[in-house]
Amino acid sequence: MNIRKATPNDVEAIARMKRKLWPDADDDLAQETLNIIKNGEPDLLLVADDGELRGFIEVSERRYAEGCKSSPVPYIEGWWVDESFRRQGVGAALVHAVEDICKERGHTELASDTWFDHELSVRAHTALGFDVVETATHFRKALSKAEKTLSKAGKDVEGAYDVWAASYDSDQNKTRDLAHEVMQAALRDFSGSVLDIGCGTGTMLQAVSSNFDTVAGFDVSEEMLAQARKKLPDADLRVADLREAWPTEDGSFDVVYETLVLEHIEDLGHFYQEAARLLRPGGVLLVVEFHPIRQAQNRGAEFELNGKTIQLQSFQHGFADMVSPALAAGLQLMETGEYSSAVDQTPRVLKLVFSA
Ligand SMILES: C[S@@+](CC[C@H](N)C(=O)[O-])C[C@H]1O[C@@H](n2cnc3c(N)ncnc32)[C@H](O)[C@@H]1O
After folding, report:
1. Atom 16 (ligand 1): residue with closest C-alpha?
2. Do residues 348 and 294 touch, judged by C-beta distance below 8 A?
3. Alpha-carbon span 162 to 37, nearest angstrom
4. Fold exhibited by the domain 2-143
5. What's 158-355's CATH class?
6. Centroid of ligand 1 to alpha carbon of 76 (angstroms)
7. Any atom of ligand 1 within 6 Å of the Cβ of 141
8. What is the mean pLDDT of each run of 10 residues along the chain (356 residues)?
9. Hey, where are the domains in the chain?
10. Which stretch of DSSP H or E encloses residue 206?
11. Is residue 157 lining ligand 1, measured as CB closer than 6 Å?
């Protein structure tokens, strides 16, 4: 099967396929096809030819495509393989040929669309690596490695931390450093069993692990945990989403703590109920978080990737938001503290200590 650019000799065969693809089209599909072939770039019309034409793909350059960041962006306007030649890689070969040409032209994305109930087409797109970007079922496929990484980072908090994990420890981050300093000092006098919720790359847990007999951590990001496992090979580190039931029995820990995780959790009621459930009677919960003043300035978690700033989804929690659900979960507030770094005009982190 040869994939090649369409010529005027192919017009009738392509128009026949287009009539099957768009049975409601009023246009003169043959004339329109001829115009595309004659006009040439930036439009692109390729055919799959094995003596007879078996399929075609038509691509234009649009100024805007849903979910895409670049402009102009190549857009698959029509893609067809005759029924008896489907599931033989003809459609994939057409798309791959388009990708190669688009990459040569310097594009980093390829967009497409289909009807949401067109199951075969939806499956064909996703099998070829296109991401669904909107419920209107428009597609976007990252063509470069950098775009693929950006695409993952922008997906959700978990995906963002999976990408951030490699550089999280080495990135400059005053808030992380101050939060760790405050938490390390706060944990100095505790012992027994400890759980770090949202432990990330495990830096904090490593710093305090020698104070405790048993050390555990939960995090939703596999990649952050992979970094933590390198530092703490003997710790009980588990993938867990704090928005769901936490995978540990009641009364398992003397100390539960978190640093800089609550901004990613909308429902703090569930968070505090689970923390309270895991604590032994008399156990302690320590929270070190973005200070509410800083949250109000929209200073949530963000990092740089390939020259772009990735902002993670975060929820603002005022002082009462962070304390009231803890009291409702049966915890008692023992201590509070506000901390700034040398460059700060306002407090950067807030410390809360509760007892069970
Ligand atoms: C700013 S990092 C802080 C990491 C670590 N506590 C520290 O201080 O270095 C936030 C961490 O929360 C985790 N996280 C965010 N949402 C979560 C969720 N729903 N369940 C579990 N972990 C979550 C992220 O994967 C990330 O490791």
Report:
1. 264
2. yes
3. 45
4. Aminopeptidase (3.40.630)
5. alpha beta
6. 39
7. no
8. 95 94 82 93 94 95 94 96 92 97 97 82 92 73 65 79 93 94 96 98 97 97 96 97 95 97 95 98 97 84 84 91 98 97 89 98
9. 2-143, 158-355
10. helix 203-208
11. yes
